[in-house]
Amino acid sequence: AKAAGKRQWSRYQPQLQAGLVERHELNESLDTAIAESAFALYYQPIVDLASGDLVAFEALVRWPHERRGMVLPEDFIALAEESGQIVPLGAWVLERAVTEATAWQKLSGDRRTAGGRLPLRVSVNVSARQFRDAGFVDTVRRVVESSGIRPGTLILELTESVLMRRDERVRTDMRTLRDLGVRIAIDDFGTGYSSLSYLREFPISVLKIDKSFIDGLGLSEQQYALVEGITRIADTLGVQVIAEGIENDAQRQLLAAMGCPLGQGYLFARPLTVEQAGALVQGDADL
Ligand code: C2E
Ligand code: CA
Ligand code: CA
Ligand code: CA
User: Fold this and answer.
1) Which of 6, 143, 147, 188 to pair with 213, CA 20 to 30 A apart?
2) Which protein residue's CA is at the shortest distance from atom 19 of ligand 1?
3) What is d(CA 134, CA 169) in angstroms, rounded to the nearest whole number?
4) CA nearest neighbour of 153 among 186, 200, 106
5) Minimum-distance ligand 1 atom for the alpha carbon of 73
6) Which of 60, 127, 210 to mutate to test the pocket of ligand 1 (most atoms within 8 A of CB)?
7) Does the complex come out with an ipTM higher than 0.95?
8) Given this model, what pLDDT does residue 193 score?
9) Nearest 10 degrees: CA dihedral of 118, 124, 128, 134?
10) What does each C-alpha distance from 123 to 79, 280, 285 come to in angstroms?
11) How many Cα atoms sit within 13 Å of 243 on the Cβ side?
């Protein structure tokens, strides 16, 4: 898995903000890609920091484009959000990730249960626009029911921008999702108008501490204290913490020492192809 992860994607120049023509062109080819489900999902391992065990995968979308190469989400997600194309694209991502995860759970389920561990989880990014769409909760329900996935193994990653709105719809939808058994994570915690009160106000199960905090861990006392404090409070509230963007072993050790349970980052693995992820699940490859 490590060697495969070394591969670097060719980036095209993200000048799409500049040209209307190019924007239009990109929207059109996004439409085609959505119609043809011409996207690829990559899966980044989330590991137990104490044991090193694989506990989950975060699904990350890419767009293999004939002229542009492998287009990364930062170059089309914002555009798809603006146009609303994120709604069908996001539904595809959810369906695909859940289908894959259900298959992996079947492969690894017995072995993991025998070891007393939870079944493999899958974490899916949901943009604010997608969450606000009137059909979102129904899409989640349909995907959960048709796949037969154990709902508790599905995590939906929302950013703080969703919670900031504090409107009744957000609350109702989050309650419905909780009643379905699906878990909700706050993604990129610390980058927006973060408030630990979200953890009290909303049914949040997981908090993902943004990479920018992890970067600073070994650099200053304050940064360490901040991450430790967040981890402690989350733990007290029964919220599980995932540290994002762990790149070196010093960071891993500091996090494990402060009791942060889970982490992800290039130190463990880059986002993997579905085949590479499957090999990990089956034990044909190691982290
Ligand atoms: P994110 O949700 O914060 O995902 C983590 C990003 O950090 C991923 O970039 C991942 O490849 C990268 N990463 C993971 N570990 C490390 C590390 O150790 N070092 C560094 N430098 N980077 C690391 P990616 O795949 O390019 O995704 C970027 C963003 O695009 C995601 O940030 C997420 O906000 C969005 N995104 C990706 N897939 C989807 C999707 O299916 N739907 C939606 N709505 N957004 C998505
Ligand atoms: Ca995420
Ligand atoms: Ca994140
Ligand atoms: Ca991010």
Assistant:
1) 6
2) 245
3) 9
4) 106
5) 30
6) 60
7) yes
8) 77
9) -90
10) 22, 17, 21
11) 34
Q: Please tell me the total number of residues recorded for the chain in this structure.
A: 287
Q: How confident is the model over 47-89, as pLDDT tens digits?
A: 999 999 999 999 999 999 888 899 999 999 999 999 999 999 9
Note the ligand closest to the C-alpha atom of 133.
Answer: 1
Atom of ligand 1 nearest to the CA of 208: 3
Residue 230 near residue 236, CB atoms below 8 Å: no
The pLDDT assigned to 11 comes to: 52
Task: Flag whether pLDDT at 282 surpasses 80.
Answer: yes
Q: Ligand 1: which of 77, 98, 246 to mutate, most ligand atoms within 8 Å of CB?
A: 77
Nearest Cα residue to 206 out of 112, 129, 118, 81: 118
The first and second tokens of residue 77, run together, are 């997600």
Tell me the one-letter amino acid at 215: D
Q: How far is the CA of 280 from the centre of ligand 3 (A)?
A: 22
